[in-house]
Amino acid sequence: MKYLLLLCAVVGVSLALPSKLSRPRPWWNAKPNPGNRIVGGFQIEIEDAPYQVSLRKFGHFCGGSIIGSQWVLTAGHCVSSASKPSETLRIGSTDNSEGGQILKIKRAIQHPKYNYNNIDYDFTLLELAEEIKFTESYKAIELPEQDEPVTDGSMCLVSGWGNTQNWSDNPRYLRAADVPSVNQEECSKAYEDFGGVTDRMICAGYEKGGKDACQGDSGGPLVSGGKLVGVVSWGYGCAEEGYPGVYSRVASVRDWIKEVSGI
């Protein structure tokens, strides 16, 4: 049986499909292959992606993006709604084990339409307990307008501390990969055995695979043109030929983000 693996998140979510299985891609759902992260990418410094954060609970398990001085956007399958979340965030560090700052989360607001079964509306907003004073190592990323399109083939940057499928890469340090956005209809056709993709999703990757986000990258940023266009969400395997990565489309919920956060 093949497995559809989501890119990091809540424990034990799964849905049986005709011949495959859909499940989240947290660290604990990764295939046995220690020492893995962003596939086919390169190491970067936090200053190259100062909006990137590490979501933590007994260590890193998801990514996220700073969108305001007191707000972070991550995946809905990473954190559900909670008035007193137990998770924390590390900001301002290339190394996900030390450095930067550790911040407490005041509350988590999962999108009210988040679908447990097909991972639609895969968004959670995290309100921080205190404001971030921006520096070169941590600052907010610009957001698109509601329903702002991403042109097919636009180059995007995905980053995180997730799987690389390369034993020689040190899992402590931030990595990134350049991936082109994929036509929506083509992506939905590629994933037709999994029910396709919805309008709240955007795909990015190469037809022959080789570069992708993977376990541990969930909730992290997909950036194009200086804007946060996607949130790492799910995909079949990692960097598999014929299966681009699937991201939550930020422009599809821009009004909800503004309503909740004021941003």
Characteristic key phrases:
six-stranded antiparallel β-barrel, 2 helices, single chain, globular, 263 residues, 16 strands, mainly beta
Give a brief description:
By secondary structure, the protein is mainly β. The protein has two helices and 16 strands.
Helices and strands: which structural class?
mainly beta
Distance between the termini: 43 Å
Q: Specify the number of helices.
A: 2
Low-confidence stretches are 1-37
The assembly state of the depicted protein chains is single chain
Q: Residue-averaged pLDDT, rounded?
A: 86
* Count of extended strands: 16
Major sheet: size, sense and barrel closure? Answer: 6 strands, antiparallel, barrel
Write up this protein.
The chain is built from 2 helices and 16 strands. With 263 residues, it is mostly beta strands. The termini are far apart. Mean pLDDT is 86; it is low at 1-37.
Outline the secondary-structure elements.
Layout: E1 2-6, E2 15-16, E3 20-23, E4 42-43, E5 52-56, E6 60-68, E7 71-74, E8 88-91, E9 101-110, E10 124-128, E11 155-160, E12 175-182, H1 184-190, E13 201-204, E14 221-224, E15 227-236, E16 245-249, H2 254-261
Parallel strand pairs: 1-3
Antiparallel strand pairs: 1-15, 2-3, 4-12, 5-6, 5-8, 6-7, 7-10, 8-9, 9-10, 11-12, 11-14, 12-13, 13-16, 14-15, 15-16
